[in-house]
């Protein structure tokens, strides 16, 4: 291996993303309120970012965005009272601590300082994910304030109501209005429907690039709600099964960044929405893995290394550096045995290689390999 590539200091921001999974059979009006879940699988909401966006332009992504000070406001406590008490507002026991590597330098860590923050991260980040889903997609995940029911079953988004478009414009201009919207509707963000899923840190690419420490949550809904892209940050959307999203990516109908592709392939392990929801409930105390991918540049491509891979090094130098080699990708792959990596052959050809097990009883994607020549038509 060669030495590090020269780099500068990144600017880090904390963010939250919501993987929204839904059943795909609309129950008839005469059906009972709790109808059997569809058995043929589920769909994921993918939003198409505007090509004018500075980060991941044109990509299909899960809803989400940067955590705002409004998401941590002490004013939320009075809205959740009296049924849900601080600090965790009924979320249950604290999950096991997540891995600490890497520790972000204090100078580039979360700009929302912990002093004065009324809500812990696992509450504030859920509020952020729900707010951003409303801003970007018009999907509102709220529940009545008086409701105490645990999220033992997949839920439903709030039906569209008169005046929500105007509220959405206000929230987009100032996130503090999201609290005012919830007060107006006498609802709280349905933080209990969001399950811990994973945490991704943006890998280093170039000096001074924007980077995010992003918490991924997963939410299961019984049926797909209407989606209304904001036509500014988001210009389109689709509901896709993991297989459909994979096929659309390979056929160049959509583009996915490696973390989204990885998560979609991970979700392909589940045959139904009920299986996915049960997995989330059974793993509520396991905690999530926090990953900083390390980019290995090869002579003819690049490999995104993840924790557990034999080439992955928990070394703070890689917070701001790339790894490189003069060997070709195929040669690197033939030499190894312990894999947790995404091989990036081109912008629409990724291969996932996994031979390790999760330390947190999570599920990893199965090895997924596609020949570059299979995509050439």
Would you kindly provide a brief summary of this structure?
The protein is 21% helix and 21% strand. By secondary structure, it is of the alpha+beta class. The model is unreliable at 1-7, 26-39, 107-116 and 373-377 (pLDDT under 50).
Question: Main β-sheet, in a few words?
Answer: 8 strands, mixed
> What percentage of the residues does DSSP assign to strands (E)?
15-25%
Find the CATH topology of the largest domain. Answer: Nucleoside Triphosphate Pyrophosphohydrolase
Number of helices: 8
Mean pLDDT: 87
Into which percent range does the helicity of residues fall?
10-25%
> Measured on Cα atoms, how large is the radius of gyration?
21 Å
| Overall body shape | globular
Structural class: alpha+beta
Total domain units? 2
Distance between the termini: 35 Å
How many β-strands, per DSSP?
Answer: 15
- Under the CATH scheme, which architecture of the largest domain would be assigned? Alpha-Beta Complex
Low-confidence stretches: 1-7, 26-39, 107-116, 373-377
H/E element string?
EEEEHHEHHEEEEHHHEEEEHEE
Question: Under the CATH scheme, which class of the largest domain?
Answer: Alpha Beta
The fourth-level CATH homologous superfamily of the largest domain is: Nucleoside Triphosphate Pyrophosphohydrolase
Keywords: Hydrolase, Magnesium, Manganese, Metal-binding
EC number: 3.6.1.77
InterPro entries: NUDIX_hydrolase-like_dom_sf, NUDIX_hydrolase_dom, NUDT19
GO molecular function: coenzyme A diphosphatase activity; metal ion binding
